[in-house]
Amino acid sequence: TGSVATNVTFIRNGTTVGPLRDGESTESGGVTYQLTQTVTDRAQSTYQNVLTINQPLAEIIGSAFSCSVENTIGTSPTSQPFIITRKDVPPPPSATIVAVSSTAIKISWEDDFQRYGVISCTVSYERATGAMQQGPCHHTGHSNNLTFASHDMETAIIVTGLEEFSTYTVTIKTQNEVGCSSPSTWKVTTWPASPSSAPEWVNSTATTSTTITVQWGAVPCMDQNSEITGYRVQYGPVDSSHKTTDTVPGSASAGGMYTMIGLIPSTNYSIEVAAVN
Asked: Which of 231, 248, 239, 237 lies closest to 271 in space, CA to CA?
């Protein structure tokens, strides 16, 4: 607003549009701009400039505009830029979510939060019942929420403390002064890991003077960390450093059995059983 100007020049994101006079239009980058000048106070010879942009609003939001005016005396300084915003709830968030270890995922933001005036972001993650990708284990589902204020938002966050080889549902919502966005949802599976515990029990029985049969139970579901494919049996005389190792096929739902043959009579043996995935 000001005294009557001959030309008005606009700058959009660094690109010059104009100069334009009242009623004139121009095209830049496939977009049409038209200037209209309206007198607001004839006694003071003041007016208002209105720039009409022929472009979908979604493509205008986030653009930075500044302008300068020219009259018969000279040209004004360029105004401070202002960013076009729309008072609406943010769109559903966009992000990339990947597993970065057996117990952590990385969430990378793709949205420009400032564009929609986002003031907070909530990340919810939940491991549902039966979230293991392989085997018969059925975990009890659990969930957690992380909420960030706008000044704490980073371009990416790492969520840690998750369960190994488990599928999580991740939901993200953002909020501005108008309201909350619709949620966006992803599924991500943490990496497999080696079993974190031994079989629940191990029993051995000498069946002859040179054979021992060993039996064992399954590894607890929460400690399998992937599909159990077999069991490693390692044995040898207690007073000897030499050990024999063999791998026995097996599954997560049950343990297994293995018979050691060709042993030394009247000898104490140490036996170790470990799950393999």
From this structure: 237
